[in-house]
């Protein structure tokens, strides 16, 4: 019997989010809509550039956002990650626990160093541009895995950002092998165009001989396939997983399965901040499928949750918002 609905592995990052203009983004030299890895020197320069600006601080990291969303909706999740023995590391661990997520962080003493951060710049068009200092999570390795808990989970979820880290990728792949041997479903998110452009071999290894679930947005899928033709894209990515969720912002989501396409409409909202949208979709979708709902129903819930998070600033939703989404889902199911 499964103990966890979802076992996820990814980068532990504390998000600091700033509202900036396009001119400010350009002046800081931040590439728009992309995730860029930065070193300590670049981090210091960016912190100086945003000094005095209001910042929202939240627990972050792509897979972290996903497993928290699943737990907030009522699912049981475990998250393997790595933080440092500092204030941000304690903040991150306590945030997971407060959201009901089990984690390896409660079992081991963290190392010295700096916990990773992600500086998220949000422009007036709602686009998010991320500068990520990995810090301690750059050395995430297989010691963070709980093999018994992987084997007792319904789905094992890998964050595509780990393709940029040799030790993190190795840990994700070791977990994948454990999950596959135990008959646990495999899931991956492609995460970002930069991962596809610069870390494709790592993503290919995560996909391996096939997945049960793959999550990507349209821009990522275009980059992966080297094409903007939707028919070409759907035919190509459908080969990577049994079920593919291709999110298309205001156009909704395409669920690709067994040669069939199901179009699920987006929630009708005004987007102000797209940070966390894909993570939220995946968390809500995986919650629904692990509770026995159809993939189309799960995509509806994913769209509602993603729509709610992009209509506010910040990458997470509070308990009240999640309760509203649960009520709407119950009504939708009839």
Distance between the termini: 29 Å
CATH architecture grouping: 3-Layer(aba) Sandwich
Weakly predicted, low-confidence segments: none
Strand content: 15-25%
Q: How do the strands line up in the largest sheet?
A: 6-5-1-9-10-11-12-13-14
What summary fits the major beta sheet? Answer: 9 strands, mixed
* Tally of alpha and pi helices: 13
Name the CATH class: Alpha Beta
- Provide the CATH superfamily: Ribokinase
Computed Rg: 18 Å
Mean pLDDT: 96
Helix content class = 40-55%
| SS class | alpha/beta
When the domains are counted, the total is: 1
The 3D shape can be described as globular
By DSSP, the count of extended strands is 14
Order of helices and strands: EEHEHEHEHEEEHEHEHHEHHEEEHHH
Concise account of the structure shown:
The chain has 334 residues and is α/β, with parallel strands linked by helices.
Molecular structure report:
This protein is α/β, with parallel strands linked by helices. It has a single domain (4-10, 62-109, 139-333), classed as UDP-N-acetylmuramoyl-L-alanine:D-glutamate ligase (3-Layer(aba) Sandwich). The chain has 13 helices and 14 strands. The chain has helices at 22-28, 40-49, 62-72, 87-98, 147-151, 166-181, 193-198, 200-207, 218-225, 230-237, 277-290, 295-310, 319-333; strands spanning 4-9, 13-19, 35-37, 56-59, 77-80, 101-103, 116-122, 128-133, 153-159, 185-189, 211-217, 241-247, 253-257, 260-264. The protein has a nine-stranded mixed sheet, sandwiched between helices. Strands 3-8-7-2-4 form a five-stranded mixed sheet, covered by helices on one side. Strand 5, helix 4 and strand 6 form a beta-alpha-beta unit. Helix 3 (62-72) crosses helix 11, helix 9 crosses helix 10 and helix 12 (295-310) packs antiparallel against helix 13. The relative contact order is 0.15. The mean pLDDT is 96.
């Amino acid at each position: 019997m499964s103990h966890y609905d979802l076992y996820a592995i990814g980068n532990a990052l504390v998000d600091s989010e700033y509202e900036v203009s396009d001119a400010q983004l350009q002046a800081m030299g931040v590439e728009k809509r992309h995730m860029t890895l930065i070193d300590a020197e670049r981090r210091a320069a960016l912190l100086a550039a945003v000094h005095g600006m209001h910042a929202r601080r939240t627990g972050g990291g792509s897979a972290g956002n996903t497993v928290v969303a699943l737990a907030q909706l009522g699912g049981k999740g475990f998250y393997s990650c790595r933080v440092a023995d500092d204030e941000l590391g304690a903040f991150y661990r306590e945030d997971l626990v407060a959201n009901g997520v089990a984690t390896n962080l409660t079992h081991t003493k963290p190392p010295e160093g700096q916990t990773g951060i992600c500086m998220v710049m949000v422009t007036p068009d709602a686009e998010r541009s991320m500068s990520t200092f990995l810090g301690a999570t750059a050395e995430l390795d297989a010691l963070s895995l709980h093999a018994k808990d992987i084997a007792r989970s319904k789905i094992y979820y890998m964050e595509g950002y780990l393709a940029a880290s040799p030790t993190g990728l190795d840990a994700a792949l070791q977990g994948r092998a454990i999950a596959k041997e135990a008959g646990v479903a495999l899931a991956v998110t492609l995460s970002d165009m930069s991962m596809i452009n610069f870390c494709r071999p790592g993503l290919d290894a995560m996909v391996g001989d096939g997945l049960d679930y793959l999550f990507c947005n349209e821009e990522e899928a275009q980059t992966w396939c080297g094409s903007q033709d939707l028919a070409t894209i759907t035919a190509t990515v459908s080969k990577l997983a049994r079920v593919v969720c291709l999110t298309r912002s205001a156009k909704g989501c395409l669920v690709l399965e067994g040669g069939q396409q199901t179009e699920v409409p987006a929630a009708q909202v005004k987007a102000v901040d797209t940070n966390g949208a894909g993570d939220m979709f995946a968390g809500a979708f995986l919650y629904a499928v692990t509770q026995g709902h159809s993939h189309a129903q799960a995509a509806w819930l994913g769209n509602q949750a993603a729509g709610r998070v992009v209509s506010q600033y910040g990458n997470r939703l509070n308990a009240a918002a999640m309760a509203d989404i649960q009520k709407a889902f119950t009504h939708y199911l009839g």
